[in-house]
Amino acid sequence: MKVVTAEIIAIGDELLYGQIVDTNSHWISQELDLIGVKVVRKTTVGDDRKDILAAFASAEARADIVLITGGLGPTLDDLTKPLMAEYFDCPVVENQAAVKAVTEFFQKRGREITPLNILQGHLPVCCTYVPNEVGTAPGMWFERNGTYWMSMPGVPHEMKKLMRDFVLPKLPNLFSLPVIVHRMIKTVGIGESWLADLIRDWENALPSTIRLAYLPSLGQVKLRLTGFGTVKSEIEKSIQQQIELVSPKIEPYIYGYDSETLEEAIGKLLNQHNKTVSLAESCTGGYISHLITSISGSSSYFQGAVVPYHNQFKNELVRVKNDTLNAFGAVSEETVTEMALGVRELFKADYGLSSSGIAGPKGGTAEKPVGTVWIACAGEDFVETKKLQLTQDRMLNIQLTGIAVLNLLRICILKK
After folding, report:
1. Which pLDDT tens digit goes with each residue over 256-279?
2. Which of 165, 242, 280, 386 is 20–30 Å from 108 (CA)?
3. Which long-range CB contacts under 8 A does 109-118 form with residues at least 24 apart?
4. CA dihedral in degrees (248, 250, 255, 256; nearest 10)?
């Protein structure tokens, strides 16, 4: 089976200057990979006629599919549409359906439409008009010499809508694509190299039709199993068999599968056991509460939180003794223990969580350097604590602490 290739071209000076991060190309690559299209190159090019045309020519010589984002706005620096018309040697003319869609877009929102906006409904005559239901810049589909082109807005939600509704469903009708199945095992609380050691024998015994990739991220490692074949159900069955083989080897570290997040997994565990949780966050400043409440339905298990940043409020709000603070300091096992117990009582929750540390980049001492963090989880008849030695980066420390606290709660729920 011939490998179907794609190239992504992201257009805009703002991408080259670092004013905007190109998340579009990353997302497109993931979606194409899921259907068996191989991305062979990603190109970022500024708002320059010569460079854009050169990128077009290079991509056409190399790829079966060329996906372009950006440069479709109504201003003079938006060059994609006129340059595509030049590249395909056809004029830009009014497209009545596109003009009607742009006009209605503004009318529905009670906004005045300008002549520049109307021009967004003018398209190269040799393209197929692809309606943009969530924006004003239409998509443009071109075909030439066996290569297929799609030009889309750079606004992420507009691009994703066009990809999902038009491009991704269309490609299987144009090409013979392989059947590819991805499954993800998500782990937390173990590093990549340690994880690899635990599953080395299993990994070495994987069948040739299944590939394993280690995908480390912040405080977590994902194991991606990718199966190749011709019958989807058979690939899915084979991957599931491998998941069942490896899971017992790393069970304490697995929190979920596929798209499930750690905060979603925590919510499911709490609901499953009919338990509730509350938080006293110092160094994390409410970040962990944000993670928990980002999940729909979290009100069924999240009681509430406080951020007693100063010692006065550690004492007044969650009943940390002044003697404890004076003897051991805010960043100590003793303090987070009393914080977790106090916030559990304050909100009448089944579990109380706490964090206190030196996020940095200032505030460290020889005894407690930047990155020193204590966390705790209190239940009905226990308190589990853990000391973290993290980095010099403040935001990274907050994020890593959040993951560690959620994982500590996960472990405590499973133990009980």
Report:
1. 999 999 999 999 999 999 999 999
2. 165
3. 114/74, 116/74, 116/75, 117/74
4. -60
Indicate the number of domains in the chain. Answer: 3
pLDDT interval class at 244 (50, 70, 90): very high
pLDDT higher than threshold 80 for residue 1: no
Per-position b or e across 235-262, b if 16+ CB within 10 A of its CB: beebbeebbeebeeebeebbbbeeeebb
Q: 143 and 65, same structural domain?
A: yes
14 and 160 housed in the same domain: yes
Same domain, 276 and 385: yes
Amino acid at site 158: E
- pLDDT score of 222: 97
Residue range 47-65: average pLDDT?
97
Among candidate residues 109, 143, 174, the one where a domain is terminated:
174
**One-letter amino acid for residue 137 of the chain:** A
275 and 223 part of one domain: no
Structural domain range at position 137: 4-174
Distance linking the first and last C-alpha atoms of the chain: 52
Is pLDDT at 179 greater than 90 in this prediction? no
Residues contacting 134, CB < 8 A, separation 6+: 157, 158, 161
Q: What are the φ and ψ backbone dihedral angles of 378, each rounded to 5 degrees?
A: -110, 135
Q: Are 335 and 232 in a shared domain?
A: no
Q: How far is CA 151 from the centre of its chain?
A: 24
Tens digit of each residue's pLDDT (9 = 90 or more) over 187-209:
999 999 999 999 999 999 999 99
Q: CA-to-CA distance for 335 and 341, rounded, in angstroms? A: 10
Please, what sign has the CA dihedral across residues 118, 123, 128, 130? negative
CATH number (domain holding residue 187): 3.30.70.2860
Pair (53, 163) in one structural domain: yes
CA distances for 250 relative to 193, 194, 257, 384, 416, angstroms: 13, 10, 13, 22, 19
CA distance linking residue 342 with residue 170, whole number of Å: 58
What tens digit of pLDDT does each residue of 347-405 get? 999 999 999 999 999 999 999 999 999 999 999 999 999 999 999 999 999 999 999 99
